[in-house]
Amino acid sequence: MPKVVTNDNPYLPHMGTIREIIQETPNIKTFRIVLDDPEEMAAFRFEPGQVGQLSVFGVGESTFVINSPPTRREYLQFSVMKTGEVTRALHRLSEGDPIGVRAPLGNSFPVDELKGKDILFVGGGIGMAPLRTLLLTMADRREEFGDITVIYGARSPQDLCYRYEFDEWKAAGVNLILTVDREFPGWEERVGFVPTVLAEEAPSPFNRVAITCGPPIMIKFVLAGLKELGYEDDQILTTLERRMKCGIGLCGRCNIGDTYVCVDGPVFSNTQLRRMVSEL
Amino acid sequence: MEQAFFLADAELQEALAGLSAQADVWVPASDARKPGLVRFRRFQPGLTVRLDARSLVSAKEVLFPRSETLLRFTKEKDLSVPAGHRIHLDDARTVRPVVVFGCRPCDARGFLTFDPVFTKGPYRDPYYSERREKTTFVSLVCRDADAACFCSAVGSGPADPEGSDAQLIPVDGGYVLRPVTERGAALLEPIGRTAAPEQIREAQDVLDQVGRETVGEGSLTTLAEAFRARFQDPAFWHAHIDKCLSCGLCTFVCPTCYCFTITDEARGLNGERIRSWDACMFPHFTLEASGHNPRPSKVERYRNRVGHKFSYFPARYGQVACCGCGRCVRHCPVSVDIRAVVRDLPAQEEAHA
User: Fold this and answer.
1) Are B122 and B181 found together in one domain?
2) Does A213 show up as a binding residue in the annotation?
3) Segment holding B49, helix H or strand E
4) What is the per-residue pLDDT for B3?
5) Do B189 and B226 belong together in one domain?
6) How far apart, in whole angstroms, are the C-alpha atoms of residue B302 and residue B243?
7) B122 and B1 in one domain?
8) B67-88 mean pLDDT
9) pLDDT at residue B353 greater than cutoff 80
10) Averaged over B75-82, what is the pLDDT?
């Protein structure tokens, strides 16, 4: 039966189908989704950093970043950590199941402003998801950017997402530094918290922009560490998360003062963060 | 007053019945079981219309129902795939013309807070906007402001026509109906007789007299900066809000509070996605699945409510998000008074210290 669309309704999801599910870590799954209407899928455009609302009908919606890059458009990829009601329901879905998608929503990374610059990604756990979309965009347009260094950490080796494509990242000329919180048998990369590894690596702030996402406690110390290394506020980008319902600036939930994370974000510079009321 | 009609008290029911032929007509009304409870109800002949009384809840629910279906979904077996199913979505809706008759000017003006958010964007809310386009507001010039009212302090007043399509002006033996907009004029023409010159004069006198009245002290419209300065002053917020019960009544009776939640309800293969009123004063409103809550206590929540109305909303839309109806003050079970909080924002002397 065709979908009834009576008008331009921002609450009405596009219907899609889950093509592939990847078990990233014990509690994170990645969903590769194709919109059912081929024309809709072909016309779908987004920028790195934009998010979408995934629907499990009968349970509800939640917001996730589109972590595939706009340069690769055969599917839309979302990574979901099993945490609450909707994410639990998402984890129960199978390949071939229908799913609702309201996307793209929110702002994006200022890709054009990053051209010609060296880039430092600092990610923790599921926080690698929004960085991945930008990282792969840059990998696909490699000559437009300078050095790309990634510091990515998780509690343990099995908590790192996207392990199966680390070699592809390196092959694209990404300086990938991996770390886990403590020693594990067979682990040969770095050991230590992300902010510690950042201080040890000390990538120069000269002509560089740092982009960070991860748990709040990691972000707090990464921001302090970057400042220590001489990064200015406008050289630091991050993405924020808030509980959201509508995703379109109406329902009143995700505001930080007069800033709405859903429509003004999720991407903010540290300059913008400092201007906000302190209600993180 | 160029054009005006007269409606006698005795003809009110007949006029409302006439209007009801083309539209859903919402009026303040009470019923025999609870004569003290006045709220907006859809008119039907015999309803006890209470233009004399202020309603407990505003007319907000006429355009923004307490609960409404955004879309319906149906699961269907997909015979082309083993164990497969499809989801069929349907957001069809019908919107009837609506008349809000006899609300106070503050209630009509309350929707001016909704309009820039729900009809302008960046995303237009079709449910609200479609209803809004078909709604006509006839407000009653208000002659019984009480101690909780403060419409003048937010740039309005008891005879404010802004947000109304027509005004009801009480005169001897009935009302003079004065169109404010073309839509108002079109609505009134069939239901009233042309007012006599002396009726128009009397109505003009009432308008002039009520228009000169000041309801509420001072001005609460220029305190955005003071709010920012107070933001990091926990003692100030504790002093004003420690008694708050987090019951959320202030938001439910408020004509300008529009926070909502969206939930799914399903039974078997069918279900609905539903929008319902929610309140920033509830602890779970911003509670994240991780357990983190950016507004963990009532201090942060009430600060956000005050900030939204008198600082954040003005920053975004150039007007305060308050119409001064006084309901939150009048009905708060522990007498939190938002006027006092906002007035104290710039105070230099620390009364609470």
Assistant:
1) yes
2) no
3) strand B48-49
4) 83
5) no
6) 11
7) yes
8) 89
9) no
10) 82
Is B89 within 8 Å of A84 when comparing Cβ atoms?
no
Examine the domain organization and report whether B38 and B155 are in the same domain. yes
Give residue B126's region: left, alpha or beta (phi > 0; psi -120 to 50).
alpha
Examine the domain organization and report whether B204 and B295 are in the same domain: no
B174-222: pLDDT as tens digits? 999 999 999 999 999 888 789 999 999 999 999 999 999 999 988 898 8
> Per-residue confidence at B350, pLDDT binned at 50, 70, 90?
low
Residue B88 included in any domain:
no
- Residue B107 maps to which CATH number? 3.40.640
d(C-alpha A164, C-alpha A185), whole Å: 19
Contact A58 B271 (CB under 8 A): yes
- State whether the Cα torsion B322-B323-B329-B331 is positive or negative: negative
Q: What is the pLDDT of residue B349?
A: 54
Domains of chain A: 14-105 (2.40.30.10), 111-239 (3.40.50.80)
- Chain B interface test: which of A258, A261, A276 (most B C-beta within 10 Å): A258
**Tokens (6 digits) for A162:** 């996207």
**Long-range contacts, B51-54 (Cβ 8 Å, 24+):** B51/B12, B51/B27, B51/B102, B51/B140, B51/B168, B52/B144, B53/B28, B54/B28, B54/B104, B54/B144, B54/B146
Q: Do B15 and B141 belong together in one domain?
A: yes
Give Cβ neighbours of residue A67 (< 8 Å, ≥ 6 apart).
Answer: A30, A77, A78, A79, A129, A130, A132, A133
Q: What is the pLDDT of residues B291-323, one digit of tens each?
A: 999 999 999 999 999 999 999 999 999 999 999
Burial category of A39 from C-beta neighbours within 10 Å (exposed 0-12, middle 13-18, buried 19 and up): exposed
In a 13 Å sphere around the CA of B247, the CA atoms on its Cβ side amount to: 13
The ipTM assigned to this model is 0.92
Q: Is the pLDDT of residue B69 over 50?
A: yes
> Which residues of B fall within a CB distance of 8 Å from A216?
292
Range of the domain at B52: 1-64+96-215
Tell me which of B70, B89, B319 to substitute to probe the interface with A (most A C-beta atoms closer than 10 Å).
B89
- Does residue B276 sit in the same domain as residue B206? no
Compute CA B27 distance to the chain's CA centroid, rounded to the nearest angstrom.
14
B78 lies in a domain?
A: no
Task: Tell which residue, A106, A148, A125, has the closest CA to residue A239.
Answer: A106
Q: Which residue has the higher pLDDT, B347 or B42?
A: B42
Coil, strand or helix at B300: helix
CB atoms within 10 A of CB B56: 17
- Does B262 map to a domain? yes
